[in-house]
Amino acid sequence: MMAAMNQQPLRGQMLHNEPLSRYTTWRVGGPARDFYRPADAQDLAQFLAGLPKDEPLLWLGLGSNLLVRDGGFDGTVIAMSGRLSDIQVDGFRVHVGAGAACAKVAREAARAGLSGAAFLAGIPGTMGGALAMNAGAFGGETWDRVERVETVDRQGGLHERNADEFAASYRHVELPSEEWFLGCTLLLERGDIEEEQAAIRALLEKRGATQPTGKPSGGSTFRNPEGDYAARLLETCGLKGYRIGGAQVSEKHANFVLNAGDASAADIELLIEHMRNEVERQHGVRLHAEVRIVGDAA
Q1: Fewest CB within 10 angstroms: 158, 160, 214, 289, which?
Q2: How many domains is the chain partitioned into structurally?
């Protein structure tokens, strides 16, 4: 473990009572009591070290796969998007900060003539979120490519760990208690620049053809149950287009919930629960949410 640097003035940006609807892809969510954008890893480590031990924390990337309730979050949000976002290519290795957008990582790897990261173009989040949930798309999963990671703990301690210190499974990673990802090293293979860029274009075209891209959603709502697809189960329940308040099941892909224009977080949460209950009633399968729901009701 590397210790954080000696105490210096914090260099990040602190906001108070910041509406989280500005930062989530559903465009809903009440305010965060405190909202911090760190300047860099050392600044973040120092910030964490100065927080009360019981301070509730919410790590925020691009705001996908996250539903913040209408009452907001009574704690500290750490906003990583655009922070710790460097991408550096070193041979077959790509060093990525947790705040880097997954799609940008895919593009940079392809531009460097590296193969194995194209699937990241289909993940609408940051590498920090992808690491935390082993995000995947089009047959690829994040931890299949991870060699090393950097983390920070609640006391501001900085760590470097090998991938084999973590147990990664479908949409889940076992992480030490109160430790969070700051970045990673991906190990890729030699590829052809034009072929990799074409693969990314093909993946994005497929995503656009099958998913409601460009509309406010949280991404995939439920994990796929073993041996089946959540979208198939939801569609056979007749849920496409089903609506509660301003929240609607996409007519294009049944595993996406849309903010149809005036949804509250409560509308979305009620619709998610209705979808889960209908699949369990009709198919006897209890779906598990891929979306994380946090905060207080209004």
Answers
A1: 214
A2: 3
